[in-house]
Amino acid sequence: MKWILFFLLIPFGSSSQTVHVKDEKIYYEGLIKINSSETNPEKALEEAEKNCSTRIHNLSINKNDSENKITVLSEMNLTPTQSNINTLQYTLQLSVKQDHIKYKIDSFFLITKERGGKADTIPSKEIVKDMDVTGPVATATEKKLNQIDMKIQELIDRLRNYFSQ
Predict the structure, then answer these.
(1) What is the pLDDT of residues 59-80, one digit of tens each?
(2) What is the pTM for the complete model shown?
(3) What is the pLDDT of residues 6-30, one digit of tens each?
(4) Is residue 1 part of a domain?
(5) Which domain holds residue 55?
(6) Can you give the three-state secondary structure of the chain, one letter per residue?
């Protein structure tokens, strides 16, 4: 009987949050191994945008050809709630090395706009901080963070698929 209770209570004791946090901010970085001859980060981003279920809007691209690196300030639409339209703004940096691509995704901001109202910009530090609160605020925050993580993981997957062709 103890074992049954133990296994039933595991989901309540474990955190389902998978968003990556560094210095109390949402932050992703990693390496993607290059298996193809194509190493153009701009083209990879274009392909990732075309194939992503959430449309990504490039706001600005800063290219450094000497280091074979680009930095993109980008945003993507998140699933809207009944009263709010949510947009995620972030910075994506891709650096091409000999046999891999290094990516860094940070500087996240959640822009929430009430329908017919003004937009509020919330930095990722404040979103992560709301996880410490209990009740409905923590539940809503966890849903937002899970959606953010799912969209960013999809973007990383698209980049990984592009370079492994």
Answers:
(1) 677 777 777 788 888 888 888 8
(2) 0.78
(3) 444 444 444 454 678 888 889 999 9
(4) no
(5) 17-163
(6) CHHHHHHHHHHHHCCCCCCCEECCEECEEEEEECCCCCCCHHHHHHHHHHHCCCCEEEEEEEEECCCCEEEEEEEEECCCCCCEEEEEEEEEEEEECCCEEEEEEEEEEEEEEECCCCEEEEEHHHHHHHHHCCCHHHHHHHHHHHHHHHHHHHHHHHHHHHHCC
